[in-house]
Structures are given as structure tokens and as C-alpha cells.
Amino acid sequence: MNLALLFDEDFTASDRVKLTGRRLAHLHSVIKVKAGDQIAVGRVDGAMGTGEVIRLSDTEAELTVTLDQSPPPPLPLTLVLAMPRPKMFRRVLQTCASLGVKDLWLINSYKVEKSFWQTPWLSEQSLLDNLTLGLEQAKDTVMPRVHIRKLFKPFVEDELPALLAGKRALVAHPGTEVPCPTHLPEAAVLCVGPEGGFTPYEVGKLEEAGCQAVHLGRRILRVETAVPVLVSRLFDACL
Ligand code: SAM
């Protein structure tokens, strides 16, 4: 937690917050703060700044906060991700939030196991908790929006074309001819496949919608590795 993300319910006055639970435990056991210390704070979807600890107990920490700095700019990327295996999903979600992805579409694909959609990590609270961890790690406040689409074809045919309008559209697919571009000067939409990859039919549908298939070299990376590699390759100037 390089920044404590503050929610409306934490505020007891416009410049005062009380922290409990996970954030309090972190202040005690990791940062080991004492009264008078300052920590980085930020209001969700708002400004960042500093919080001064004015009172600390086993049950809560009270801070006065000054919020006068802008969060880092968002990554100009819409990420379309085939739903990962639950064990990996939580980490991917945190990584996306840390990298500055603000628009994440979780889609079905032939090789996404049906059971993946049952994971409790998809509950609204779990999504919020994990995105919060990712934002706190990276010192950002702007909560990513997550869209869930459990049918591949209607998403690709009916919704994807509008998402691609005016943007560079790519599908990461091993073994294609075109290397993934670097230093993109424009906003992009990037599709990343499941553990077993997109099927040829799915790559064809994504290409029909306007995506260009690109590769990252001969090494096939896990989704949790491929996402940060692709993002840093496309947008190194933004990181
Ligand atoms: N056997 C699968 C295949 O050949 O498509 C491997 C899938 S990989 C574990 C999961 C996803 O990460 C891929 O669908 C792709 O979107 C992305 N990816 C991983 N390595 C890649 C590479 N070398 N080039 C392009 N995309 C890659």
C-alpha cells in the first residue's frame, strides 16, 4: 500500500478520515506509523495528497488529509481479456489497475472453462477490493470500470466495433506474422486470449471486427505476464 485509497464512508469531515480494517492493519504492521507521521492518501476517483496521523489505536486511525495533487494519467487502452482462471484472475486484475488500465472487458471464449465464471472474485466487492489493491500499489485513485460479457459472438459483432472506433485495434496471438507495435501515439484496444489461446474462428471474428493480430515473439507467455509485457511495449512512454 503505497497510498491509502479513501472512500466516501471514511470521511468524518471534508479534511478528516478514519481508517479501520486492512488499511489500519497495514499502518500498524508494515508502515509502522505513529501519531504525527504522514502517509500518501488519495480519494477514490479524485485527488491525491498526504494524510497526517493525528490519533492511532488498535481499532482505528484518524488522519487529517490534504488532497491537492492529480492522479497519474490513465493508460489510453481498452483491454479485452478472455476470462482468466480464477487463481490468476485476482493477480491480473490488480496488475491491470496498477498499470493504469481504466477500461477492462472480461469476455468469454471457447477455451474459457464455464466454471471460471462462477468465481467469487467476480463479485462486485471482490472486484472493488482487488482493483483498490492495484491502485494503492501504483499510487493512483481512478477506479477502473469492469464490463463482463459471457457471450463471445454478440460482444464481438455488436459491441466491439464501437469500442474500436478511432483507435488502434490489436489482438495478441502467438504465431502471427506481425510483431506487436511499440510507442503507440494513439489510444488502443487490445484483446488478450485465454490460457489455451483464441481459436482460429475467434481470431477471424476479431479480425473481421477490425483487430490486427500481432505477436510478442516466439516465447508464449502466461496471461499475467503477457498483459504487462504488451502494455509496456505499446505504451512505454505512459508508464
Ligand atoms: N497455446 C496458446 C496459443 O498458442 O494461443 C497460448 C495462449 S497464452 C498462454 C494466453 C494469451 O496471451 C494469448 O492468447 C495471447 O493473447 C497472449 N500471448 C502470450 N504469449 C504471446 C505471444 N508470444 N505473442 C502474442 N500473444 C501472446
TrEMBL record:
It catalyses: uridine(1498) in 16S rRNA + S-adenosyl-L-methionine = N(3)-methyluridine(1498) in 16S rRNA + S-adenosyl-L-homocysteine + H(+). Its EC number is 2.1.1.193. Keywords: Cytoplasm, Methyltransferase, rRNA processing, S-adenosyl-L-methionine, Transferase. GO terms for biological process: methylation. InterPro entries: Alpha/beta_knot_MTases, RsmE, RsmE_MTase_dom, tRNA_m1G_MTases_N. The keyword rRNA-binding does not apply. Specifically methylates the N3 position of the uracil ring of uridine 1498 (m3U1498) in 16S rRNA. Acts on the fully assembled 30S ribosomal subunit. This is Ribosomal RNA small subunit methyltransferase E. It comes from Marinobacter suaedae.
